[in-house]
């Protein structure tokens, strides 16, 4: 391969390697050499490195930016030390919750690491089934935006807008699909470099296989298939999950969301760098911010996330719920969500400066009102959702055969109070009265078919494990009890909520 010749870009490689190394500790530099040795062995010797391909999954956040920089340093180290190196595939997954600022961060990182024009690097963007070469202003496919929008609404109506089920469950299954597609694209990769520890990988695998077993999947067969087996288990979990969400008739929705499981003949190895580095961002702040040019944008940096704006909407939904469903104030709900967010930021050992930056955006009533406007604008821009649809979601008026429909109409749409019986008929499929169906679609942002599916479904009881949606949240650590205050009595109670 011409791009693997001993003289390829040696001067520029040397300059970049020296600059990058200046931001790394002696421990990290030792780790880079150690990983390089592992890759030589895995490839079958230095002479085979040129045909060895390593993938990094890049979400565009601060932690994954560090992993990309680390793997680039390994690639340069091998080129300079041995005149040969591996091909580096960087795959970034997108969804509607990824704002433009994240793609701009990715572009700055790629430019700082000189990846964009290096033939030893494959930079791909994965938009569900569509895989393209990275470009900072690559438009998000309309079909993907629609899938994400429908998933948010259907999950949100089943969970009364609780943060993790609403925004993360379908997204996490999409991440599994992303790995399958990115790792096996155009001949596949030999290894996937990850920042997760071996312990984290084992715990995650055990959780997946436990969920799979509860779904009736042959987990022993999955175990024998390695990474592909894990994806196969996740495909089974996804099928169960989305069948619960879209009903027995949701064949097209299930097919569209099926997790890719890759090629039977290829089995990429997982190589963790966790034990060789520190993930506390303040330990390599200069590398992330000064050299890579990472910016903690107002939308992209949302509480624990630096690559997704959906946590901002989680806080917004909590505010809408306390205002419209519980008869308290929007501000009270946001402050309750901040209890969870602060706990989680400390748990993730985020620097105090970032915790304070996130919380300071909500530290006055005026700022909360400003954030409300920003959240509403973002919901419209990312998911094409007006406030009416978000309020309907936190009310969940259509599930349980419309058990909360009358109250929802009385409280939020009193002009329709005399049509509740007609609404029930339409939702049961016993009437197709045009103005009723039009109103239902406008207020919910869902089709009449999706609304009828919700009508036949129940609001998820998270105290039980009767549904896959509930079982997923049981094993999800991103939740905590927060304190709520009744404005009438002043009594305090604890409520379990989830988020990021």
The rounded distance between the terminal residues' Cα atoms is 45 Å
Low-confidence stretches: 1-7
Shape, principal axes of CA atoms = globular
Taking all Cα atoms into account, the compactness measure Rg is 24 Å
**β-strand number:** 8
Query: What portion of the residues fall into strands of 2 or more residues?
Result: 5-15%
Tell me about the largest β-sheet. 6 strands, mixed
Number of helices: 23
Strand order of the largest sheet: 4-3-2-1-5-6
Structural class: alpha/beta
Percent of residues in helices comes to: 55-70%
Structural commentary:
The protein is of the alpha/beta class. The protein contains 23 helices and eight strands. The chain has helices at 10-21, 26-43, 62-82, 100-112, 142-159, 163-167, 169-184, 198-214, 219-223, 226-246, 251-256, 285-291, 310-325, 330-347, 352-360, 365-383, 387-395, 399-402, 405-412, 420-428, 434-444, 448-455, 468-474, and strands at 53-57, 87-93, 121-127, 130-133, 191-194, 269-272, 479-485, 492-498. The strands form two sheets. Strands 4-3-2-1-5-6 form a six-stranded mixed sheet, sandwiched between helices. β2, α4 and β3 form a beta-alpha-beta unit. α8 crosses α10.
Which descriptors apply to this entry?
23 helices; disordered N terminus; two-stranded antiparallel sheet; alpha/beta; 500 residues
């Amino acid at each position: 391969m011409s791009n693997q010749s001993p003289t390829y870009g040696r001067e520029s490689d040397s300059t970049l390697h020296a600059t990058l190394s200046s931001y790394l500790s002696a421990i990290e530099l030792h780790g880079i050499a150690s990983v390089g040795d592992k890759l030589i062995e895995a490839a079958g010797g230095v002479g085979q490195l040129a045909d060895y391909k390593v993938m990094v999954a890049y979400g565009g956040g601060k932690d994954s930016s560090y992993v990309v920089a680390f793997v680039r340093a390994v690639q340069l180290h091998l080129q300079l030390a041995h005149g040969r190196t591996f091909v580096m595939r960087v795959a970034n997954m997108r969804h509607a919750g990824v704002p433009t600022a994240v793609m701009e961060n990715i572009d700055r990182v790629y430019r700082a690491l000189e990846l964009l024009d290096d033939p030893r690097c494959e930079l791909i963007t994965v938009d569900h089934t569509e895989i393209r070469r990275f470009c900072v202003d690559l438009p998000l496919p309309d079909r993907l935006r629609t899938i994400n929008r429908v998933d948010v609404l259907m999950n949100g109506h089943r969970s009364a807008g609780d943060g993790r089920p609403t925004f993360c469950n379908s997204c996490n299954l999409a991440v599994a699909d992303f790995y399958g597609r990115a790792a096996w694209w155009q001949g596949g990769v030999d290894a996937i470099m990850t920042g997760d520890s071996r312990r984290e990988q084992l715990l995650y695998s055990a959780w997946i296989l436990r969920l799979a077993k509860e779904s009736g999947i042959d987990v022993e067969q999955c175990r024998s298939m390695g990474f592909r087996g894990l994806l196969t288990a996740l495909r089974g979990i996804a099928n169960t999950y989305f069948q619960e969400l879209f009903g027995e008739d949701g064949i097209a929705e299930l097919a569209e969301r099926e997790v890719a499981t890759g090629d039977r003949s290829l089995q990429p190895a997982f190589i963790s760098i966790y034990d060789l580095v520190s993930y506390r961002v303040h330990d390599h702040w200069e590398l992330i911010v000064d050299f890579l040019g990472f910016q903690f944008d107002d939308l992209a940096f949302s509480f624990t996330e630096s690559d997704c704006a959906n946590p901002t909407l989680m806080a917004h939904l909590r505010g809408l719920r306390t205002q419209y469903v519980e008869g308290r104030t929007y501000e009270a709900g946001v402050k309750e969500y901040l209890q969870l967010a602060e706990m989680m930021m400390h748990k993730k050992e985020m620097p105090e400066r970032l915790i304070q930056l996130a919380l300071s955006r909500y530290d006055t009533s005026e700022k909360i009102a400003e954030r409300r406007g920003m959240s509403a604008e973002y919901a419209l821009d990312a998911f094409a959702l007006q406030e009416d649809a978000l309020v309907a979601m936190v009310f969940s008026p259509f599930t349980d055969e419309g058990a909360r429909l009358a109250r929802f109409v009385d409280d939020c749409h009193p002009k329709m109070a005399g049509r509740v019986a007609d609404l029930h008929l339409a939702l049961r499929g016993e009437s197709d009265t045009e103005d009723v169906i039009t109103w239902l679609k406008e207020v919910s942002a869902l089709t009449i078919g999706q609304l009828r599916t919700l009508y036949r479904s129940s609001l998820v009881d998270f105290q039980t494990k009767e549904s896959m949606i509930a079982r997923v949240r049981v094993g999800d650590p991103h939740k905590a009890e927060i304190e709520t205050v009744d404005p009438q009595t002043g009594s305090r109670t604890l409520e379990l909520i989830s988020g990021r």
